[in-house]
């Protein structure tokens, strides 16, 4: 089974590039930029990755990315992930980035996107991994800052497939960003947003994302099972959910494998992804292995999860078909 999963052509749709920053690279970038880290070794840093909720994870995540300062830093970050992706037979990835996590501490938007874009181009040419960027807004910042970020992104529109929404969900519902998402749609961006697992008001947030905002897909979204009517809406529209089993186990009490099984059985386009693999100790291959172990998935079911992912990518139809 391990070999089957390793050989399966994969598609990753829920991956925060800042969440792929491994401790080793963190130390390298800190050295390059003359920064002190509050840890004396990689082991000590990893030992501090003890989260039990979304906010406790986010604190470490934002702290960790402060070593990213220059265009080459963002290039190296993305290139390291894309090398890992190639090793795991990921053929295509849609990669989230959090520009406001950088612009809010003085790193210009163009430094971030140019570094990431250059890595994506090199990875396609050298590693045969295709990827696109999804720009996420931080939902715990004001909607006005998201709108300003959206406007700042417009000169780079050709480099960005769509927009997402992440960070701390508590008190930050989808409708807070209704105007931003409307403008993003008008600009031609595709739309997704996080509805994290077991948050306060998860099901109402899913309803707002699907019905009020009209997203193309939902990141996480497993709580949709609480409302059969919404499950039917998602089935009718053929929408996908980007689920992240190992991540679920860090920010809630379980991987939510039974919920994922139910969604698969209902015919929802469930996909399996790694979220923040440097922090949750598992890339997409390990996520598939963990879920397979929990649910005794067959070869055919594993292949179906990857077909679901390729099917809901934001690629033009002819490129999508080339993977299916
Ligand atoms: N930012 C990075 N990873 C995230 C996650 N899993 N949920 C919300 N915001 C995030
Ligand atoms: Zn996420």
TrEMBL record:
Keyword field contains Hydrolase: yes
Cofactors that this protein relies on: Zn(2+)
This enzyme's EC code(s): 3.5.4.2
CDD domains recorded: ADA
Residues annotated for Zn(2+) binding in this entry: 14, 16, 194, 275
GO terms of biological process kind: adenine catabolic process; hypoxanthine salvage; nucleotide metabolic process
Keywords: Hydrolase, Metal-binding, Nucleotide metabolism, Zinc
InterPro entries: A_deaminase_dom (IPR001365), ADE (IPR028892), Ado/ade_deaminase (IPR006330), Metal_Hydrolase (IPR032466)
Site note Important for catalytic activity, residues: 220
MF-aspect GO terms: adenine deaminase activity; zinc ion binding
Residues that, per the record, bind substrate: 276
Cofactor: binding details: Binds 1 zinc ion per subunit.
TM stretches of this protein: none
Gene3D superfamilies assigned: Metal-dependent hydrolases
Domain Adenosine deaminase: start-end pairs: 9-324
Recorded catalytic activity of this chain's protein: adenine + H2O + H(+) = hypoxanthine + NH4(+)
Family, similarity comment: Belongs to the metallo-dependent hydrolases superfamily. Adenosine and AMP deaminases family. Adenine deaminase type 2 subfamily.
Task of the protein: Catalyzes the hydrolytic deamination of adenine to hypoxanthine. Plays an important role in the purine salvage pathway and in nitrogen catabolism.
PANTHER family: ADENINE DEAMINASE, ADENOSINE DEAMINASE DOMAIN-CONTAINING PROTEIN
NCBIfam families: aden_deam (TIGR01430), PRK09358.1-6 (NF006850)
Official protein name in the record: Adenine deaminase
Lineage of source species: Bacteria, Bacillati, Actinomycetota, Actinomycetes, Streptosporangiales
């Amino acid at each position: 089974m391990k070999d089957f999963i390793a050989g399966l052509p994969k598609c990753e749709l829920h991956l925060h590039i800042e969440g792929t920053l491994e401790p080793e690279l963190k130390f390298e970038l800190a050295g390059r930029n003359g920064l002190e880290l509050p840890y004396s070794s990689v082991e000590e840093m990893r030992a501090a990755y003890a989260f039990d909720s979304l906010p406790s994870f986010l604190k470490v995540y934002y702290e960790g990315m402060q070593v990213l300062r220059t265009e080459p830093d963002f290039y190296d970050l993305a290139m390291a992930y894309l090398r890992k992706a190639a090793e795991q037979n990921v053929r295509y990835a849609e990669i989230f980035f959090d520009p406001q996590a950088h612009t809010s501490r003085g790193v210009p938007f163009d430094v971030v996107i140019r570094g990431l874009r250059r890595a994506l181009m090199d990875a396609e040419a050298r590693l045969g991994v295709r990827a696109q960027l999804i720009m996420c807004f931080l939902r715990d910042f004001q909607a006005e800052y998201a709108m300003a970020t959206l406007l700042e992104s417009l000169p780079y529109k050709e480099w960005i497939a769509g927009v997402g929404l992440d960070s701390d969900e508590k008190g930050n519902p989808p409708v807070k960003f209704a105007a931003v998402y409307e403008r993003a749609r008008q600009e031609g961006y595709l739309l997704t947003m996080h509805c994290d697992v077991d948050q306060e008001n998860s099901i109402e947030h899913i309803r707002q994302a699907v019905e009020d905002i009209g997203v193309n897909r939902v990141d996480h979204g497993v709580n949709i099972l609480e409302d059969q009517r919404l499950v039917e809406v998602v089935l009718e529209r053929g929408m996908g959910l980007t689920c992240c089993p190992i991540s679920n186990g860090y920010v809630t009490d379980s991987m939510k494998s039974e919920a994922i099984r139910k969604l698969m059985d209902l015919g929802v386009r469930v996909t399996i992804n790694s979220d923040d693999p440097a922090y949750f100790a598992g890339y997409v291959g390990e996520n598939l292995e963990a879920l397979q172990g929990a649910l005794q998935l067959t070869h055919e079911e594993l292949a179906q999860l990857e077909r679901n992912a390729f099917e809901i990518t934001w690629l033009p139809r002819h490129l999508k078909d080339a993977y299916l």
